[in-house]
Amino acid sequence: MSNPAVRVVVSVEAASEQAADEAIHKRVEVCRRTEAEEEGCLQYEVYRSALHPERYVLMELWASKAMYDKHWRLQQEREKVNPPSPPVPGGKRPTVEIYRQTQFQRVDGIWQAADPEERTETIRWT
Question: 6-124 is classed in which CATH architecture?
């Protein structure tokens, strides 16, 4: 099997809308200096809840799990030198999920994995 890209989703609930504003600003600044320059980081986006402005989601796309793991090790080393700010009281600990990405393409009316090694399923709409 090939080494597919991975989508990393970090969900954060801050103590308040203002705390979320500050956290997002800091996170984007860190991203500009790190993830944007790291090999394998293909995409970085921040989504904020329209209904609950204290909640936001960071979405990263990495070329492979190995590239993300390398980033994570570098991040841990950076945090030893520059520890992150403690969580704001009332906020919740972020959750992190990693999803393997499979791209699909349409061939003769059938959606199938673009990578032949991942073609275990197809989708057909009638």
Answer: 2-Layer Sandwich (3.30)
